[in-house]
Design goal:
The protein is of the alpha+beta class and about 600 residues long. Helices cover about 45% and strands about 20% of the residues. The longest helix has about 70 residues, at about 15-80.
Length: about 600
């Protein structure tokens, strides 16, 4: 027999992999929670900011709207349905009006001007028939007098002008800016007889925004008709670059009149959300929102993430300590105990019987030690006859050899895999040992022998993994009822693995059960291993010259052949065919017996 020496380099332990997996999982969960928390906070902060801005714009717009309504009412007194309108209509209708009529119209206009609550924002009020007649009420005395020569310089003052607040202009009669408001004058029969022109100071809007809280990097915008302006303190600055708002649909405003859009101005690196609220028809007040208002503080979020990472590291250290005490140390003790069993120390160790799952494994190892001791201490007491005695003596020679190889497999398995799979191996070994120790049948059905072989191969499969495969091909299930000496196939498969496949590194075993002749069974065990020379085959099946070399020298193929001939006669037994480097075929010829 050839013994292989297996050494492995343990790259990582199960404990370290579990801890690494838990740490990665915890970090992943923490990162996902942080990400979704960040997005959720950003969403609600954006929503809250939009709602607060909408409320502020509504409040300011309603105040501005009241002044604009008052100023519109002032223009309406000159336009229609008032005593002032009647005086203006008569004055414009008269071909040769007297100075008194002009004074009466001026006094009425001035009285309406003074009575208006928002007159402080009215820069000038002009009425004209667009044919040379005009009157003006001026709120200041610093402007250039209105004459027939300069009235044409006033933009929008024409015969077909309609009601509008559409732009901010520079007053041609002074150095101030204002918002012109133009309205038709209607006479009898709703016939247009002239035009009212009122210039409102831009302070009508800017005064209401002095206490307005404007966040950093945000802007206030004013839209008059198709013209757009930026409000900065008392200044109203025209926006000269293209102003192209795009509808913003990710959030919805509270009020039905509020509109949300996205606008990118020339000096901005990115687009901003714009909240717009209509003051009145043609007048819209807007505020841009800085993206900094939506995102939580980056420094705080970094500290939170670092805290989470530190917490994961601390928890990983605690888990490492716990797993070391509850798993690593007990597993190391179990491994050492298995090593001692492999070295021949079968004493029971109660220190490995903990109150845990690993304690169950420890108790199983102690029971295994007891079974092995019981097996080694058992003695053959059957004195039936010489043939039975020789049979049992030959069979007893197999047990220590088989046990030796099995324990080596367990030792190898425990070393490589830190005892993973030991329960299944020990279960199979227990079944094999139980068959040896308690099954007194000299012959057993071929079906039971194949079951024992399955237990043995399961143990070897843990040792060699996928490098060794075993396939059974049964010609007829009835052949499995035929009798065969116990533990006949195991030594053959063992020989195929250790001496045929193991030196080659990989191989397959095929077991075939077929009928031979009229009443015989042929069992073949074929492997594609390294094969044997003819001299080896003849030496294996011949009787050794030196019987004093020890029990292990007689165990194996020769023992199988001798037991078959003792059980069934010289016509039956083992034959071997092999080609070096190609294959080995071992053939067992048995009589088809179903009872002894």
């Amino acid at each position: 027999m050839y013994k292989g020496v297996f050494t492995t380099v343990r790259k990582s332990t199960i404990k370290s992999r579990i801890i690494l997996l838990m740490a990665v999982f915890a970090l992943l969960i923490a990162s996902l929670l942080s990400f979704f928390s960040y997005e959720l906070i950003t969403y609600y902060q954006r929503k809250t900011t939009i709602q607060a801005t909408e409320f502020n714009l509504q409040l300011v717009s309603h105040i501005i709207e009241q002044d604009l309504i008052n100023l519109s009412a002032l223009a309406m007194t000159c336009s229609t349905n008032s005593s002032t309108n009647s005086l203006i209509t008569n004055y414009f209708a008269s071909k040769n009006p007297s100075s008194k009529e002009a004074v009466n119209v001026f006094n009425s206009m001035q009285q309406e001007f003074l009575n208006n609550r928002s007159n402080s924002y009215a820069r000038r009020l002009i009425v004209t028939d667009n044919n040379g007649k005009f009157l003006q009420v001026d709120n200041t005395g610093t402007s250039v007098p209105l004459t027939i020569h300069n009235i044409g310089h006033i933009a929008g003052l024409n015969a077909d002008a309609e009601e509008q607040w559409d732009q901010v202009i520079k007053d041609p009669l002074s150095n101030t800016n204002g918002i012109p408001f133009v309205f038709p004058i209607y006479g009898k029969g709703a016939i247009r007889v002239g035009t009212v022109y009122m210039l409102a100071n831009t302070s009508v809007i800017t005064d209401k925004l002095k206490g307005y809280s404007l966040p950093k990097n945000s802007r206030l915008l004013l839209t008059l008709g198709n013209h757009h302006y930026q409000l900065t303190g008392d200044q109203v600055t025209a926006i000269t670059e293209p102003y192209e708002p795009v509808a913003y649909t990710n959030d919805k405003p509270v009020g039905p009149q509020t509109e949300l859009s996205m606008v990118k101005l020339t000096d901005d690196k990115e687009s901003h959300i714009v909240v717009s609220y209509p003051v009145r028809s043609g007048v819209i007040l807007s505020q841009t929102l800085s993206n900094d208002q939506f995102a939580p503080k980056a420094n705080i979020w970094i500290l939170v993430m670092l805290g989470v990472v530190l917490l994961v590291i601390v928890l990983s250290a605690i888990i490492t300590l716990y797993l070391t005490r509850t798993i690593s140390l007990p597993v190391e003790k179990l491994k050492k105990r298995i090593d001692k069993i492999a070295q021949g120390n079968f004493l029971i160790d109660r220190n490995i019987e903990w109150k845990s799952e690993l304690g169950d494994v420890g108790r199983g190892i102690n029971r295994l030690s007891q079974d092995i001791v019981a097996l080694m201490d058992s003695r053959l007491a059957d004195e039936k006859q010489k043939q039975e005695l020789e049979y049992r003596m030959l069979q007893s020679q197999i047990n220590p050899h088989f046990l030796y190889n099995t324990l080596n497999s367990i030792k190898w398995m425990a070393t490589i895999q830190n005892a993973t799979g030991i329960a299944e191996m020990t279960t199979s070994l227990s079944r094999l040992l139980r068959s040896i120790a308690k099954d007194n049948r000299r012959l057993m059905p071929l079906k039971d022998e194949l079951s024992l072989l399955d237990d043995y191969f399961l143990i070897q499969k843990y040792r060699y993994g996928s490098t060794v495969t075993m396939v059974k091909e049964i010609e007829n299930e009835e052949l499995l009822t035929g009798l065969i000496p116990r533990f006949t196939l195991q030594p053959l498969v063992e020989n195929a693995i250790f001496h045929g496949i193991e030196p080659k590194g990989r191989g397959d075993i095929i077991i075939t059960v077929s009928k031979s002749g009229f009443a015989d069974i042929l069992v073949t065990i074929e492997d594609n291993g390294v094969g044997m020379k003819e001299e080896q085959i003849s030496t294996i099946l011949s009787t050794p010259e030196d019987e004093s070399k020890g029990m292990l020298e007689n165990v194996g193929l020769r023992s199988v052949n001798e037991r078959l001939q003792l059980a069934f006669g010289g016509n039956y037994g083992l034959s071997i065919e092999s080609e070096l480097g190609q294959y080995t075929i071992m053939k067992l010829l048995l009589p088809f017996l179903q009872r002894e």
